[in-house]
Design a protein that fits this description.
The protein has 110 residues and is mainly alpha-helical. It is built from 5 helices and 4 strands; from the N terminus they run H-E-H-H-E-H-E-E-H. The chain binds a DNA duplex (13 and 13 nucleotides) through residues 8, 11, 13-14, 31-33, 36, 41-54, 62, 65-69, 71-77, 79, 82.
Length: 110
Amino acid sequence: MTKGSKPQAPSEFTKRVLQLVSRIPVGQVATYGDLAEKAGRPGAARAVGRLMATGSRRGLPYHRVVAASGRLGGYGGSEALKAGLLAAEGLTVRRGRILDFGRCRWRGQS
DNA sequence: GTGTTGACGCCTA
DNA sequence: ATAGGCGCCAACA
C-alpha cells in the first residue's frame, strides 16, 4: 500500500506529549508547559492543552496534567472532577489548587 | 493558505 | 489579589 492518502499523521510533538502523559506515575502531575518542553516545543503549552481538549488518544491520565503555578486548569468542563481524581491519586487539592504541587510535580527523570 | 480557537505561560498595571 | 495583554504552537473551518 502506498501512502496515497495520509490519515491524520500525528506529529512527533503530539506523539511525544501523549507518550509523556502516559508515563506520568500515580501521585504525580505534570504541567502543560513541562510536557511541551519535554516534547521538544518549549512554550507550546497551548498546543499541549489543545491535544488534551481534542484528545487524540484516550485512556491517558489527562487528569494528571495541570496548569502551572499549581492551578488545575480545566477538564472538559468539570475541574472538580479533575480535583477529585487527583485527590484519589493521593494528592491534595484546595479550591482548585494543588497543594503539594512542587512535591508531586513529575520531573520525568531527575 | 488564512483566520480563529483552545483543558496555557508569563509579564505588567 | 485581580485584571488585561502578548506570545507560543497545533488542529479545524
